[in-house]
Amino acid sequence: MTFQGWFLILLFVGILLALTKPMGLWLHALLDGRRTPLHVVLGPVERGFYKAAGIDPTAEQGWRRYAVSMLIFNTVLLGLTYAVLRLQGVLPGNPQGLPGLSPDLAFNTAVSFTTNTNWQSYGGESTMSNLSQMLGLTIHNFLSAATGIALAFALFRGFARREAAAIGNFWADVTRVTLYLLLPLCIVYALFLIGSGVPQTLAGAVDVQTLEGARQTILLGPVASQEAIKMLGTNGGGFFNANSAHPFENPTALTNFVQMLSIFLIGFGLTWTFGKAVGNPRQGWAILAAMLVLFLAGVAITYSQEAAGNPILNQLGITGGNMEGKEVRFGIAASALFSIVTTAASCGAVNSMHDSFTALGGMIPLFNIQLGEVVVGGVGAGIYGFLLFAILAVFVAGLMVGRTPEYVGKKIESREVKLAVLAIAVLPLAILGMTALSSVLEAGLAGPLNAGPHGFSEILYAYTSAAGNNGSAFAGLTANTPFYNGLLGVAMWLGRFFVIVPMLAIAGSLAAKKYVPEGPGSFPTTGGLWVGLLVGIILVLGGLTFLPSLALGPIADHLSMIRGQLF
Amino acid sequence: MGKDFTSALRPAIVLTILFAALLGIAYPLAMTGIGQAIFPAQANGSLVRDADGQVIGSTVVGQAFTGDRYFQTRPSAAGDGYNGLSSSGSNLGPTSRDLVDRVRGDIDARRAQGVTGAIPADLVTASGSGLDPDLSPAAALAQATRIAAVRGLPVGEVRALVTALTETSVLGDPHVNVLALNRALDAAAAARGR
């Protein structure tokens, strides 16, 4: 580890903390449906969309109606992408003349992008036409992110409203977030990326005769426009197979830094928006503090492991840490930091290959996803996931003193706790169940590239990433088979919508409740004790659930590594 | 519940069409238009051409250098090496025998080229993309003696090229672009008539 490495990490956190309140204020204006300076330009577009679609943005929806709107919208979007991918061969915008996708790959990819996972069973450059990248995939990067933020808004309203029947209008939330937040940011961001060397063209490949006289084909495309929303919307699906390690997606150390910032930007802002919505920004800062504790602990472990390198290779006489799967322009620190950012937030973009990390260095990204991606988390999904843990934490605190728990002015009762547990239990069920299945079936065992415990880690990481809607991978796994495409597709769907529906039910149930002012017996949810309790609950739940599986994979791998045992 | 379904269908379908047009077509096309107008070189891949106008590579994307006359690039897992149509890392894990055998083979090859002392890690490890355009300054300097001998240049001049072309940033690690370095090497050799 170097001084420069830690400086980079602290600079990263410092810039985000400075941006938290401005971003939170902007999001709060969208939550309330207030006018923004952008309404002058985009207001007519918004109204035009409502008129064409027959939407009354002021018509409030109860949680069931909000949930049904969200599900139908996402199902229609899923259908569009499935159709575009299957028909790719006969559609325009296909300079390489690529054929349509197989049914299982098209299903997997459509689910993957609808659920904000962006798991890629395919290699972008050899599979997707320009039109598929734009119309099939980029659109989901916007709308799955907007859906996540809308859902967080619904839950915020549940906490903030008193004796109310409704939690907002899904259509208006999605439209506003897309038009007034994601699209304007992406326009500026994409221009920055193009200026830094990210291609943006409708042309296909360029043939090159290299300096040594060999032939190389360099693939171009509309990369920057997709790259911008891929990071901001915590989607993570790359234009190229190598994702943000590919020099065309992430050409410089500066683009890499901005990409990391943009993964966390909205998630940081949403914590502040939550505090503001419930009438006390300190509630938001307390949540962010708990997230930062977990984040920095993860960074420290992975960075130190990668900087120390693989002892087996070091013995052969190399120096400079573990550079397998990493790019020189980023180096160890910026690669380790990126891996923690992308898995803490449910982004899944990678600037280095997690499969080639040291055993413990690669375990932290895996564990981050297993914790439910609540350390900042995906846009929207992170904060609503975190609030489920907050409900459990006040419940545990209430049990200790024998009082009905309260959180930000709402009594938390058995209905909310049951729904929270239901939502939290989906993840381990999908991850551990499907990993176990794949570890015994022939079709599952055909997948891993690496032998020994690391092969098991590849399977475990795949289902963790899918159910957690992350999308990063221990990419040695051959996942483009009907077995993995199908099962991972199901895991992604479960991990997204089987969390969302109970969460919206909680929002509806909270909105209907009376406000309970804070009294002398209330457990304070802003101080250090609360932050400690939150961190403890998240680690204990995640640890108890997943430690046995980690022992079989990364921990066994680590023990083999320090003994010098190869597979 | 049934009414909720039917009343949600029209907004879902109409918004899907409108957003598809806005986000899937208009946004990327607009960015293409603006990008091509403001940053034509970068938007088209930062291509490098020789004196005859022939494209010889991109400043952004790495290309393979395997011969003795040039600074050699890192091992690559993109296809047969630096294949622009199949970017990829090796994805070999820390306890992989394949990884250790490959690294050992590459270390032996470097030793045979006269590299002494500790080997810079990037020189014998595959990058994440398989298209890494850079080397660390240490990995480039480790090749200076060999190149000076083959090209008939003073070692000091070869080393100076590496130092001059090394880019540093507080946001990443020092690196030197291999294509730029090798073009500078060609220019230096030409200036001396070699």
Automatic annotation (TrEMBL), chain A:
Record membrane topology: Multi-pass membrane protein
- UniProt-annotated location(s): Cell membrane
Report the main location listed first in the record. Answer: membrane
What are the alphabetically sorted keywords of the record? Cell membrane, Ion transport, Membrane, Potassium, Potassium transport, Transmembrane, Transmembrane helix, Transport
Q: Which Pfam families match?
A: KdpA
Q: Which InterPro entries match?
A: KdpA
Coiled-coil annotated spans: none
Q: Is this entry keyworded Transport? A: yes
Q: What sections of the protein cross the membrane?
A: 6-27, 66-85, 134-156, 177-198, 253-272, 284-303, 330-350, 357-376, 382-401, 421-440, 486-510, 530-553
What family is reported? Belongs to the KdpA family.
Subunit architecture: The system is composed of three essential subunits: KdpA, KdpB and KdpC.
Q: What is this protein's function per UniProt?
A: Part of the high-affinity ATP-driven potassium transport (or Kdp) system, which catalyzes the hydrolysis of ATP coupled with the electrogenic transport of potassium into the cytoplasm. This subunit binds the extracellular potassium ions and delivers the ions to the membrane domain of KdpB through an intramembrane tunnel.
Q: What is this protein called?
A: Potassium-transporting ATPase potassium-binding subunit
UniProtKB/TrEMBL annotation, chain B:
Its function?
Part of the high-affinity ATP-driven potassium transport (or Kdp) system, which catalyzes the hydrolysis of ATP coupled with the electrogenic transport of potassium into the cytoplasm. This subunit acts as a catalytic chaperone that increases the ATP-binding affinity of the ATP-hydrolyzing subunit KdpB by the formation of a transient KdpB/KdpC/ATP ternary complex.
What highest taxon heads this organism's lineage?
A: Bacteria
List the gene name.
kdpC
What do we know about how this protein assembles, alone or with others? The system is composed of three essential subunits: KdpA, KdpB and KdpC.
Q: Does Transmembrane appear among the keywords?
A: yes
| Biological source species | Sphingomonas jejuensis
Question: Taxonomic lineage of this organism?
Answer: Bacteria, Pseudomonadati, Pseudomonadota, Alphaproteobacteria, Sphingomonadales
InterPro entries for this protein: KdpC
NCBIfam families, alphabetized? kdpC, PRK00315.1
Q: Which UniProt keywords apply?
A: ATP-binding, Cell membrane, Ion transport, Membrane, Nucleotide-binding, Potassium, Potassium transport, Transmembrane, Transmembrane helix, Transport
Q: Where in the cell is it found?
A: Cell membrane
Q: Which family does it belong to?
A: Belongs to the KdpC family.
Report whether Membrane shows up as a keyword of the record. yes
Q: How does it sit in the membrane?
A: Single-pass membrane protein
Q: What is this protein called?
A: Potassium-transporting ATPase KdpC subunit
